[in-house]
Amino acid sequence: MANQRKSFARRHPWITWLGGGALVAIAALAITVTLLARRAEPYLRARIVAVLSDRFHARVELDSFHISLGNGLHGEWGVWARGRGLRIWPPAQPAGVQSSTPDQPLQPMIQLDEFGFHVPLRYQPGKPVNISQVRLNGLNVHLPPKSHFLHVGPSSDSAPSPVPSKPSPFVEFRLGSVDCTAVHLELETSKPGKLPMQIAIAHIRVTGITANAAMHFDAELTNPKPIGDIHTTGAFGPLQLSDPGESPVAGQYSFDRADLSDIKGIAGILSSTGSYQGTLRDITVDGETDTPDFRLSQFDNSFDLRTKFHAIVDGTDGDTWLDPVNATLGQSPVSAKGQVVRVLQPDSDGSQHSIGHDISLAINVNQGRIEDFVRLGSHGPVSPITGDVSVRAALEVPPGQDRVEQRMTLKGQFDLNQAQFNDSKIQSRIEQLSLRGQGRPHDLKSTDPNTIVSAMHSNFTLARGTISLPDLAYTVPGADINLKGTYVLDGGALNFTGTANMQATVSQMVGGWKGFLLKPADRFFKKDGAGTSVGIHIDGTREHPNFGIDMKGIKHTLPQRPDQQPGQQTTHPESPQSPYVHPPQPVPPQR
Fold this sequence. Notes:
Helix content: 10-25%
Radius of gyration: 41 Å
């Protein structure tokens, strides 16, 4: 029988013993490191609590802390540290600061559900240990109101207390970045009857973390109303331990895909970009918005609405002061200034909840186009009227469940110039009114109706979707019309009464042989310096208005004698003290 060839292990038994010894050594090392880690966990947990307590001058609690061996983010072996239940209370009395309500129970200023980081097994004396990334999840930050902190400065005649020097730590750490998910920030306010400002952040990354210096952040969050995505980058800090709400913050933001239909009464997709700076409690914002399809949800016409704004935001409750907002609606420039504040309502248990925002703005329109505003509040694609409009008004929009146009109140005055009507029939009637009012009926066939322009002026109040015009003055060459009444936005219903005053007399307005026959009637229509004064009414809709003459008013019109001054009251010859309210009866001719 041939000799069998020996295996490699039998021919080299020392390799087997060496490999087995190495495995035993590695296992022993792992067990040793695990045991050391278990014994080190209480010490490291205590050190974390002590460092944070010293940094924030506050009580710190940490429920659990564990370490283990494992690969890092870049495949580098090291120690993984994980903790749960971290709580940091507000500062309890840092240097020069004391709590104004020391006996009041407080909730933690910082609560963290869990955290983790990786420390490589590599150390060079004299150099900090690099922690490339710290991961946080479930971070809740609650900043007490400013009134919680009472600043107590040292007296002028007392020397400052010496600050004891602290020994340098045996090992220094350098943080690369902190990534945090599910962040909730709550800023308390000192204003009575105001709810705190709450901000939910889906993800935030913080870099450049050093003591007593600003850190950089990159965050993504969802705006609650209107719903949209916000991306912001900037710098925060250094943290003011005496009052964290006074910590400086600055950055840029972009607000995308904000659906305005979340706000009852309006619609469109808004985008915005801008910058901000200040403190957490007092932020100045400069930005721009663009809503290419802005419209009132009740109507069909949409406009490109662009704005530029400067605002001051109280970060503790969200109240905003706008000064100014410069907008462009279609071709019309609009400027506004005012405030947007939250309104609270008490519950049955005495607590309060927000019912929305109260908007109060002063609005100014210079050289706008009336067709932009008419089309915004109508269904038709073409405005029935065009012209230059100027508006000065105060806007109030209280909170509520109704649509915006039903809740808003707009009160002010407007001036409309160079006005023309797109309906040829209406514009033709305006032409007849103007030419006949000037005593030029013979020019009706030779005059282009589109050359006649008119003007309007009035105070107005818009409430519950209806515009009230108490003193509408409408003028065209040859005629002045004074009206009062209402106009309904939805449907365009008209209801106006008033007086039309023409320069020409009745006979001059008619002209020709018919006008000659009407000369005796001229005196019945003359009043207050007008050649003809008649009562009129307008009803129907904006697309199909109806014009009428108030004949009952003519019956009581007082004739004006040639020697009578405009506005002087006519009296009966036989009774000088009694007003002459009826026209004279004709005397039958003698035979």
